[in-house]
Amino acid sequence: MADDQTVGSFIIDIKSKEVLFTWDATDQIDIKDSNMEMGWSITGDGRTFETDWDYFHLDSIDKMQDGSYLTSGRHTSTIYKMSPKDGSILWRLGGNKSDFTLKPGLNLSSQHHVRVRGEDENGMTISLLNNANDEHHQTALSSSGLVLRIGMDTMHVTLVHRYYSPQGLLADREDSLTEHILDDSHMVFETKLEDPTGYWYRNWKVNLTTAPATSPVVYALSEVTGGPTVWYVSWNGAIQVHLWRIYASQEQWDGYQFVGNFEKVGFETRIESEEYFAWTIIEAVDGAGRALRNSSVSVTTFTRDLDLIEQQNIL
Fold first, then answer.
1. What is this structure's pTM?
2. Could you give the domains of the chain?
């Protein structure tokens, strides 16, 4: 949807702000299809606006080639194909009214992030994060990523890939699956939030590059004039930096010598030299050895003994 943005159950044209499509679960989904009881802490008791009963919980939507919408209901454990004309349900996968058969041992439960991966005349391939847990129902020992083949000619669903959490993580809400093609189907990267109050709804694998408007920053420090030099180097917003290249001089106009290449560690990298350098220029270098940008201006080393002398003179 190049010009559309999905916002809950609305499709909105970003430029004109026109609402192109509106959908309400109560018009199409029977409340008896819900797995959640009214009054549970995560669903509400329905007595007030603030505690309305979340019987459906739409958590993802994707557009198909024919214009239909593929949606996911977490609290019904069902994936739906929805008509773009009137919002009617064209078919269901999972839940208590599934139109498809699944092989034994394959089930959907409290799923998230359902995405269309490919379509052809006989069916489609989708991916999803099968949470298998919603705080009240647990249907597997751990959450897993699923890639499924939906056969429209057979009305049967087969498993293409299943990615289990190496740590046996059980996500009771949110989360997502991003597939990166390798030689086999093992999981190569998994992240989690240690803070139980934190939320991490979706993750995407993208080719992210940045071009900060600012230049790299270096702070140079020596305990005494003539002593070892310590540099604190950073570049806010730059994600391609692999190494810091340092050029330094004993005197401002005495020519700069190459000190070395130093691996970038964290947001701010601490670099030490046994030599004293009064002036410094740093250069950011990427993983291919290409220079990205330098600090341009030579930085004067701050020394504690000179600072102390200056303070005494002021007093």
1. 0.67
2. 4-164 (no CATH), 217-308 (2.60.40.10)
